[in-house]
Every structure is written in structure tokens, then in C-alpha cells.
Amino acid sequence: MSYKVLSRKYRPKTFEEVVGQENALTVLKSFIKTDSIPHALIFCGSRGVGKTSLARIFAKTINCNELRDKKICVKCSVCNEIDENKSLDVIEIDAASNNGVDQIREIIESSNYSSINCPYKVFIVDEVHMLSKAAFNALLKTLEEPNKNTVFILATTEVEKIPPTILSRCQMINFKTLSKSSLIHNLENICNKEKISIDKNSLSLIAEESRGSVRDSLGVLEQLMTSLNKSIIISDARKILGATSDQILFEISKNLLESNIKECLTNYDSIYKSGFDSKKFIHSLLNYFRSAIYYKLGIENQIEDIINIEESQINELKKYDIEIFENLFDQLIKLYEMCGKTQNIKFLIESNLIKLCLMANYLNFDEIINEEEVNNKIRQSQEDAVKINKKSTQSKETGPTIKKKTPKFPANELNESNLIKELDILNNENSKLLKSCDIKIQKNKMTIDTKNNLIYKILNEKVRLAELQDTIEEIFNVSITMSILNSNELDKVEDSDDFKFQEKKDKLFESETMKNLFNTFDCRVLDIEKDK
Ligand SMILES: [Zn+2]
After folding, report:
1. In a domain, 516, yes or no
2. pLDDT tens track for 250-299
3. Does any domain span residue 504?
4. Which of 57, 177, 202, 475 has a Cα-to-Cα distance from 113 of 20 to 30 A?
5. Same domain for 92 and 24
6. In this structure, are 431 and 323 located in the same domain?
7. What is the Å distance from ligand 1's center to 116 Cα?
8. What is the span of the domain harbouring residue 100?
9. How far is the centre of ligand 1, averaged over its atoms, from the C-alpha of 79 (Å)?
10. Ligand 1 center to residue 7 CA distance, Å?
């Protein structure tokens, strides 16, 4: 027997063999049960989730010679012919290659003749959104006056490209992207049948690589089988698939959390040089971060699509504050979206890794505050700085002993430039925070203005505020009141009417109604102006 690729060998032939897609199955079975077969169906869903396979099964069920209890026999001539795509009554067309109006006319003409061997003539049009406008119009005429016993099954990955006039004449069946666990379950079954030994991590990796597509998951498994034969282990699987290993994802995550800019960039550079797809890498990192958050919260078992992370890595990552995770996760989502839009992905990722490190740095202070040792070091350096400065600027003064709390400057010398100089010397987390802000001092009132929402949040914490006050009082002989402002320009913009208008406009342009309108009339709206 000739060799069949896995996706063909394990292509489902009965309703029972279909993986996932419970909703689609329920609807299709109910048509058969009630003997009410629609003239036109739309199967929509992403690639490789089983649309054409299920279309064939449906065609077999309504045509099988030896149907029992509404179940197909799988062995009669009709079933066999449909499975082998040789049936004269069940015709598959790939609109991606036959999108011309002539081909559609041929189909329509042939739909006028009644079926030869089967009760129903079935046309399965794959990638139907690729049809030209004229072809859609021709199809529309047929759908408006459907032939008795003719069924059109239109499969598509992009339903929004199908004219509403067509959509309104079809029964819509939605196919869902498969969950990681159902992909793994299916892969496990196939590996058992093929006598392949494979570890859990490899199964998990294949499922992650195939993003919800059964066909892709079998393709990936096949790729591994070709190189590794009947024994697949995770380290080999990663090499072949060019997947970023958990170890690298762990390292780069840790470096982000620790604000190690240099190490982060080196990590990414080695990933880039090894030829790994950068967007895919950000996606993996995003997945890793997401999963780490769930592990940290201890609910990893209750959530779908969590990647396996080694216990040692989890224990290490658990040390970090959930807030840092959340913020980095949020930024990574934005970065991933930007990846699809840029011409220069490497620069984009580099600049964002730096940004993420700086952000984590501002958030990373809790750890430092809690560590007595580090705290003492900061105090020591503070005292040293005070001593040195005393010597150089106030040499007249005798009695070198400086007590810890002795202010360095008299109250009237508290001003912006003196403060900034002192913050430079201090160089601790608090001083870094303050230096990133715009500071204004009037007598003993101090206004700290930041454009960064995150820093604003940190500065407003009671403990933080008290610390800052203490620091300043230790340097300047003055008690002060502090007010923290957030002059985030972006926020202001977002609140403005113009911004809201633009946002609404963008949403309208992206809406399905507009897309359908553009498609139907072959037109485009250039702009919408605000009535002033
Ligand atoms: Zn049959």
C-alpha cells in the first residue's frame, strides 16, 4: 500500500471521528434527523479545523446507499467515491484556483442536471471568499432559485469577505479553533496507532505550534517523524521545529523581570541569529508569561492552553510581584500586535525589550525595600555622600562627626537643582523614580509631575510617599508637603472628543457591515468628517 500523509490517513470519515466541533455536529445532525436539508450552507472557521472533511461526511450522510440509524456505512460505492473525490454527484471546487466567473457558470450549469447516482447533488466550494464579484453574482442567481436536491456547501476562512446577499441565503455553521487539550488528545491517539513513542512535552509543543488546527498538528507530527522516526523527545523536537526552548524563554523572562537590558538583548540576538521567527518568538514569550501568571496564582489546572513550565522555573518566577508580571504581559500583547505592522521587526523588538526592562526596573523596588542588607547599603552610601559633600563645600565647619539624621542643607537651600544633584548622588530606587519626574518646589511645597501612569501609581503609595519625604527631610532641614501629579498627555488625548470620534470612525471602518457594503458596491469611503 502506498504511503499516505497523516492528515489524509486520519482524515475523519464519519461524524464520530470528527475532532472537536460539537456545535457544528449538533446542527448538521439535526438537519439529517428532521430531513430538512438546506440548499446552501456556509462553513466558516480557521484553516485545518475540519470544514471540508465535515462537508464530505455530510454529503455522504445524505447520499449513502446503506444508511442505518442515520449513520453512514463507509463502504458502499457512494461513500467510497466521495471519500476518493471521484463522485460525479459530489463535486469539490477550490475557489482559490477556480475563482473565475466561467468556472462558476460551469458549476451552475451542471447543477441544473439532476444527480446521477445519488439523491443529492452536492457542491463543496472551498475558500469561497476568493470568488470574483461576477462569480458571486452568478452564484447568487442559483441560490435565489435553488434546484431541488442540490446542496451548496461554501467553506471559508474569511466570512467577512462574502457578500451579505449570499450570506442571507445560507445556513451559517461556525467551526471553532481547537483547544490545546483536544489537539493533544487526538495526537496521542494517532501516535498510539502509529506506534510512536512521544513524551508529553513534545505533544504539548506540537499543539502549541499548530494554533488550533488539526491538519497543522498532523503536519508537524509528520515533520518530526520524518527526522526522528518512531521516538520523539522534546529536546530533539525543539531543534527540528526551531522552537524557542523553555529555558531561553525562562532566561529572557527573568532578565526582563530583573531589568537586565544587556542580557535581554543578547538573548534575543541569539534567538534571531538562530533563524527563529521573531513574531513567533514574541508569541511564545507572551504564552510563557501568561502561563507563568496562572502558575503564580495557582490556577494553572483550571485554565485551557497553559504551557508546561518546569517546577524549578516556576519557583524562581514566583518570587516576583504579580503587578510586574501583569504590566509586562500587557506590554507584550501590544508588542505582538505591532510585530505584524512593522517592516523592521528586529529594531522594534529590541527597542521594546529595553522599554520593558526600564519599566520592570521602576516596579522592582519592593524586593529591594524588603531586603535589610540592601537598605543598609543605601543608607551607607547616603551617609558617605553627605560626608564627602560636607568636606568639599563646608570646609570651615569643624567637628567631622556627622550624625545619621543631620541635614545637609539648611531649609532655604531646598530647590530643584540642589535636589537633583543630591538625587544623583543617592542613586537608589527612590531617587531614580524622582529623577524621571518633573519636580517643582515652592517654599516647602513640592510638586512631582510624571507622565508615566505606572510611576504615578508607585509614587502614590503611602509607604513610598513617606520614604520620599524622609529622604528629603534628611538632606534638607525642612518638612515638606508633597503632591503627585500625572500629566499624561496621552490620557488627555484619549479623553478628548476628537480622539473618541477617531476611535468610533476606526471601529466603523473595520465593522463587518462596512466591509460588506464595500464588497457589494465595490466602493470605498474616503473619510468621515466631524460636524463642527
Ligand atoms: Zn455508504
Report:
1. no
2. 999 999 988 899 999 999 998 888 777 888 889 889 988 998 999 988 88
3. no
4. 57
5. yes
6. no
7. 16
8. 6-174
9. 4
10. 22
